Amino acid sequence: MGRYHRPLALADALATLAGGPATVVAGGTDVFPARLGRPFAEDVLDITGITALKGIGLDGGWLRIGALATWSELAQAPLPPWLDGIRRAAREVGGVQIQNAGTVVGNLCNASPAADGVPSLLALDAEVELASSAGLRRIPVAEFVLGNRRTARRPEELATALLIPEPGPGARSSFEKLGARRYLVISIAMAAAVLEPAADGTVGRIRVAVGACGPVARRLPALEAALRGLPLGPDLAGTVTPAHLDGLSPIDDVRGTAEYRREAALVLVRRAIRTLTEQA
Amino acid sequence: MTGTIDRVGAAAAETSFLLNGRPVTIRVPPIRRLSEALREDLGLTGTKVGCNAGDCGACTVRIDGRQVCACLTPVGQVAGRHVQTVEGLAVEGPAIGGRGGHEARLTRLQASFHRHGAAQCGVCTPGMLMAATDLLERNPAPTRGEVEDALGGVLCRCTGYRKIVDAVMGAAEDGIAFLVPQAGAAVGARVAKTDGIAKLTGEERYGADAMPADALWLRAVRSPHARARFRLGDLAALRRAWPGLAAVLTAADVPVNRYGIYPTGKDQPALADGEVRYRGEAVLALVGDADTIESLTDADIPIEWEPLAPVTFEAARAGGAPVLHADLPDNVLVRGRVVKGAVDDTFAAAAAASVVEVETAFVEHAYIEPEAGWARRVGDRIEIVACTQTPYMDRDEIAHVMGLSREQVRIVPTAVGGGFGGKLDLSVQPLLAVAAWRLGRPVRWTYSRPESMAASTKRHPARIMARACAGSDGRLLGYDFAGDFNTGAYASWGPTVANRVPVHATGPYHVPHVRALTRALHTNDPPAGAFRGFGVPQAAIAHEALMDDLAAKLGMDPLEFRHLNALRAGEPTATGQVLEASCGLAACIAALREPWRAARAAAEAANRAGGAVRRGVGIGCMWYGIGNTSLSNPSSMRVGLRPDGRIVLYNGAVDIGQGSNTIMVQICADALGLPMDAFDLVTGDTDLTEDAGKTSASRQTFVSGNAAERAGRGLRAELLRRLNVGEDAALRLEAGCVHARDAGGERTLRLADLEPDARGDVLSAVGTFDPPTTALDEDGQGVPYATYGFAAQMAEIAVDLELGTVKVTRIVAAHDVGRAVNPIQVEGQIQGGIAQGLGLALMEEYVPGRTENLHDYLIPTFGDVPEIECILVEDREPLGPFGAKGIGEPALVPTAPAILNALHHATGVRITRAPATPDRVLAALRAAGVGVTP
């Protein structure tokens, strides 16, 4: 059995990681299921004692989600409407027990293809803050998740926060999750969208991402470009075509066929966009 | 050999926290799961472990007031925080009787659970209570939706959730006053469970909850292959490398390494001998101290595998596949057959005929309590304490496996955290017995969730081809059914399915000409065994699709078509049996008529508006023979009177949550003429109780209920005789005396004056009942069951035409139960059965190696089970105790057909492959050209 570290200071956590690899534990909601029937043989770094990693707040044009911020805290924090999408995702992660313990940053670091938070983070242009004894660096979420259970985090680094840039005025967001039951369900497919309307009632900027339709969630740049400048109205969702989703690479599994995922993703993207236009 | 096992490794550290308001310090590895620390290190077993993966919520506790999964929380994280478990819920408030005479205190929430029948097996109840406590502290008056959101992370497999929501909504109501029926008024009363309090306080002991401190641990090494030969490597070297190993058991260590339900089907080894026949089959048992057993991984075990191409269901059906069992060269375990009349001729003359093909999947019982127990050797006897549905069969089977006499085996069933048929087969028992016998020490074993799912039996996948025809008057003429059932690697209950299905194949209708043929086929899949309905739910999908289609072809309303053809008293069944009474299907269908018409009209009106969501309403009917098919299945019950005037019911009928511990007392109390609250229960211990048979085939209320009634009447007769009073005398218990009053005045019997027997009873009586049936002849003609349950259910659904998702929005269920001994429990069975039927219809499919957990294998959650209206039709069964029949399995059977028929009503598309997952529904809609109309 390995060692268990639960430091109270970030510097101590980073020193531990500098000293050798350790499995980072926050909410434990992904780490423990992965250890079912297997003992913890490796060293563990439990970061839940580090107060500096807590909290969610807007600061200098960025929303900071600390590494210990849970889904419940995100769902319950007083936040502006442009975060409605990811807050809806927060209420769809597992059950309340999972939302009370699981963290937004942990969900990202676990890098499941079906991670409920990632499509919204992509659509929000979020960045990950990584700390090590050598200092801090920030990289976009799109460059952080490399594949199924693979991220750009180096073994000596700790993901300390997510940083989301404040969008333009009137921005809003949406999220659609498809599962085969109501609660406690792994997504078959997901879509997230963030809209920054232009002053003339057209689409200023829109960012759309789809999850669980490939090893990593993906933005749909062709769609985003096609929607720019179109009028914000009930017809907008209908302009999404299957070709806009060409970048997806869904697989067959017990939750659904690849073909189904492709069709469902199209529907979810349209609905996510419809939600944005209906909010107008 | 004694002594405790040191579970504290080198990495242990002290953690201090508040536990239920009291400071505690434990010294364990801080990465240990809080659930394990609570149960193993702190002795608080009220927190249950269902999955160790955050998938089921059974282990939900509150940390600083917030609900979390204890299985996902490292002990190190609770330092300085407040952990509340179910044991810490009620620390003040009035006390009432708890388990074993202890005083228990209940919060209003717990009391509301008790009143509403919100706990059935009770294994999810601690988690439900903790989640609800968290909610109610923040929101004392939640809406139903808020309750579902807050409790949505806890799975329940018994209740269908509705009564749990009711209980949380009703928690603001006052008091812990529960209905206590007067003498003679117990049957029919909405009385709370006699064993309910312990399920609410965490006191109840399930399979994993009362392990001896000095027990060795056992773990099985299981096959990763569906079919393989294997060679064991150097086990002596393994023992040397792991000094904590006390034994490594192989097939050679099992005295008689073949067991099975039927005398002719003893084909399953406790440990495979050189060849495995399904993924998950046990090949070795490791026994040792906890740390060793938990640290050993399969990679440490020297086994050389030679995988072979598995026999699939398709290959077995086609014939010519490799042979699984040498005595069955065609892999056919058993054939079932019911033939009456000249079915082929009827189709030529019929006004309408329909054909359907049905395909169903493996379905997992998914009880929230994994199999668990322990065993010890006591002299030349072996004692097994484990969760089971069938202690007496376990006793005989363990005697067989161990080469002992049945008197040398004692089975002590624990409370059972859900069974549904899955705990009718042996699980932990044989290897625990072998290990404890050899080592002379107690040995314990709890299945992990993946192990439970991989190793245990499943519902049989079916491939059914059926056709039916009717005349222009709308009356059914013929029914022709051929069904293959995938019985997996071993016989288990396969013969039961193959024999029960043909009897029920037509559905609950009068059909003059019938041919129903079945085969149970061996494959390299998990053994398919007993699961709520024994094949009848699969067959019901076929007959209910055919009824809808015939009605459409004849231009008749689907409900009226069924009402016309409903089997009525005096009409013969497919086996030629004529039911004389208690044949209430037509009444059930009639009870649905008004809601049916209103719902169909509303759905059709809504659909005219177009849009992505289409509504539909479907109906499903069923019948179900109570008890074994043409086999003796007796039950005996003993009731005794203590010198102090307490009454003891020796109840060998295992309560798996369905409520027999309550039903038996209700029936016996009214038969005796004394009140329920004078009763104590001694439950299912093969040394202490009579053989009540198994908890299966919906038989306990009917069969054991009759035994309880007879026992009660026997004791009453003895009291009346000693008191020398007439039949109609009223009895009363007071201060160790029985008082009787009749027209001749009052007489008194002082119980302390009588000599107690070895049990401590001064008077006792035994009642026995075996349902009258006959053998079936070669055409399946005869009387297979003494009585049948009947039901009609209607389902309202909404289908998303763009995503293929199906949301069930309401179910109305009308059930003929003969007599509802306890309406709360009957409703609970109906609602829980409906939830499982909904899962069968829409989401449940077990795939070996792919869905061995509760996040890939989906069962319905709080948000998936709709409002359910229960209509109890009480067409009294003259043979039943106070007119009662059974409800356990009937509840599930019509649900999936009703939902699939609703899907057809909504979309015009007939789906006959279950489950109707979103991808399958969408593919079927696309193939039929059904889409959103602009």
Which structural class matches the secondary elements of chain A? Answer: alpha+beta
Helices and strands of chain A, in N-to-C order? EHEHEEEHHHHHEEHEEEEEEEHH
CATH class of the largest domain in chain B, named Alpha Beta
Tally of contiguous helical segments of chain A? 10
Number of strands of chain A: 14
Characterize the quaternary organization of these chains. Answer: heterodimer
Mean pLDDT of chain B: 96
Rounded to an integer, what's the Rg of chain A over CA atoms?
19 Å
CATH homology group of the largest domain in chain B? Aldehyde oxidase/xanthine dehydrogenase, molybdopterin binding domain
Low-confidence spans of chain A: none
According to CATH, the homologous superfamily of the domain at 172-279 in chain A is CO dehydrogenase flavoprotein, C-terminal domain
Structural class given helices, strands, pairing of chain B? alpha+beta
Q: Using DSSP, what is the number of strands of chain B?
A: 33
Distance between the termini of chain A: 56 Å
**CATH class value of the domain at 172-279 in chain A:** Alpha Beta
Domain module count of chain B = 4
What features would you describe in this structure?
The complex is a heterodimer of chains A (280) and B (934). By secondary structure, chain A is of the alpha+beta class. Chain A has a domain at 172-279: Enolase-like, domain 1. Chain A has 10 helices and 14 strands. Chain A has helices at 10-18, 31-34, 71-76, 84-92, 96-101, 104-110, 118-123, 141-144, 221-227, 258-278; strands at 4-5, 23-25, 44-46, 56-59, 62-66, 127-132, 135-140, 145-147, 150-151, 158-165, 172-178, 189-197, 203-211, 218-219. In chain A, strands 4-5-10-6-7 form a 5-stranded antiparallel sheet. In chain A, strands 11-12-13-14 form a 4-stranded antiparallel sheet. Chain A has a 3-stranded parallel sheet with strand order 1-3-2, covered by helices on one side. Chain A is globular, with a radius of gyration of 19 Å. Chain A starts with a strand and ends with a helix. In chain A, 56% of the residues are buried. Chain B is globular and about 75 Å long. With 934 residues, chain B is of the alpha+beta class. Chain B starts with 12 loop residues before the first strand and ends in a 7-residue tail after the last helix. Chain B has 22 helices and 33 strands. In chain B, a hairpin with a 5-residue loop joins strand 6 (95-97) and strand 7 (103-105). In chain B, helix 2 crosses helix 5 and helix 11 packs across helix 12. Chain B has 4 domains: 38-68 and 82-169, Orthogonal Bundle (DNA polymerase, domain 1); 216-308 and 366-455, Aldehyde oxidase/xanthine dehydrogenase, molybdopterin binding domain (Aldehyde Oxidoreductase, domain 4, 2-Layer Sandwich), CATH 3.30.365.10; 458-628 and 778-928, Aldehyde oxidase/xanthine dehydrogenase, molybdopterin binding domain (Aldehyde Oxidoreductase, domain 4, 2-Layer Sandwich), CATH 3.30.365; 635-769, Aldehyde oxidase/xanthine dehydrogenase, molybdopterin binding domain (Aldehyde Oxidoreductase, domain 4). The chains are: A alpha+beta (280), B alpha+beta (934). Chains A and B meet through helix 5 and helix 10 of A and strand 4, helix 4 and helix 22 of B.
